[in-house]
Amino acid sequence: MKVKSRQLMWWLAIGGAAASSFAASLVWAQSDSGSDPVAEYRAMFGDDNPAALWVMRGQGLWQEVRGPKHVALATTCDLGMGKGIIKGAYAHLPRYFADTRKVQDLDTRLLTCMVKGQGLDQAEILKNRFGDGDRKSDIEALAAYIVDASQGVPINLPMQHPEEKRAYELGKAIFFYRAGTHDFSCASCHGQSGKRIRLQSLPDLATAGKDARDTYTTWPAYRVSQGEVRTMEWRIGDCFRQQRLPELKYGSEAAIDLTMFLAKNAEGGKMAAPGLKR
Q1: Is the N-terminal amide bond of 274 cis, ω within 30° of 0?
Q2: pLDDT truncated to tens, each residue of the chain (278 aa)?
Q3: 105 and 132 together in one domain
Q4: Chain-centre distance for alpha carbon 101
Q5: Which of residues 95, 126, 148 is at a domain's end?
Q6: Element (H, E) at 98
Q7: pTM for the full model?
Q8: Which DSSP category does 209 fall into?
Q9: Is the dihedral of CA 268, 144, 62, 93 positive or negative?
């Protein structure tokens, strides 16, 4: 990620809290286009993105020797392209991993590498699975660094293993399943183009196409309203909250299956994450 040193130092100087407050004032302002509430924010920073701070921290965590096993993720963690290889890795996830016998997304694969590879405590990692102010998430930082290395790489899922095909079909079923107090499904909001919530235009994620590609390829993303980088695990969990469904367990099959469905519909789109979101 290209970062101008002057803007980077400005972000470091004012601190996350002040930045979040300033960004929030832009979020709720009506943009000239009326369809993109963070258009003014993007225009102000141009090619730069506060997620650069997460990318740098993630790079350090990836290369740092940590845990009881005294190893670095850069030499031991296989994200599907080989140990330590991150270029293009996100564009081929979720996928089946033989060592866990599971289909995994980036979050759960990183968790496997940190727990089994480095010997770190899973419960301690998950206490900070989502960052909040001064309490930062290692997984979100690592995700920002890894996804940044896949910029420009087209989404291309393996989809050869039976478990990968099964995950896609289950994700599709979950996407259209109506439940909860409001009888909502994912498709209630994202089943066609042109729907809106507040100032935000909602993309069609139900079918393969431009909406699906433009949306999926910009996650993980820096959320202006929260001042944090968020992964697809967080995004799907927040959708469950808005559907008034029970809280989605972190790393659950439902989250991974939905991610598989969304990623497949975005196939061919070139990764452009970390994005910048409301």
Answers
A1: yes
A2: 555 444 444 444 434 443 444 343 333 333 334 456 566 666 666 667 899 999 999 999 999 999 999 999 999 999 999 999 999 999 999 999 999 999 999 999 999 999 999 999 999 999 999 999 888 999 999 999 999 999 999 999 999 999 999 999 999 999 999 988 888 899 988 987 777 665 667 899 999 999 999 999 999 999 988 999 999 999 999 999 988 888 889 999 999 999 999 999 999 999 999 999 88
A3: yes
A4: 23
A5: 148
A6: none
A7: 0.83
A8: S
A9: negative
H/E element, 86: none
The domain that contains 115 carries what CATH number?
A: 1.10.760.10
Question: By C-alpha distance, which of 192, 176, 178, 205 is closest to 265?
Answer: 205
Give me the domain span that covers residue 255.
162-277
Are the C-beta atoms of residues 9 and 24 closer than 8 Å to each other? Answer: no
CA distances from 215 to 70, 170, 208, 270, 273 (A): 38, 21, 11, 11, 10
The answer on 188 and 142 residing in a single domain is: no
The yes-or-no answer on residue 239 being catalytic is yes
Catalytic one of 77, 186, 189, 239: 239
| Co-location of 104 and 29 in the same domain | yes
Same domain, 173 and 255: yes
Residues 227 and 141 in one domain: no
CB 51 within 8 A of CB 92: no
The whole-angstrom separation of Cα 72 and Cα 202 is 40
Long-range own/partner contacts, residues 17-24 (CB < 8 A, 24 or more apart)? 17/133, 17/227, 19/50, 19/227, 20/224, 20/225, 20/226, 20/227, 23/224, 23/225, 23/227, 24/224, 24/225
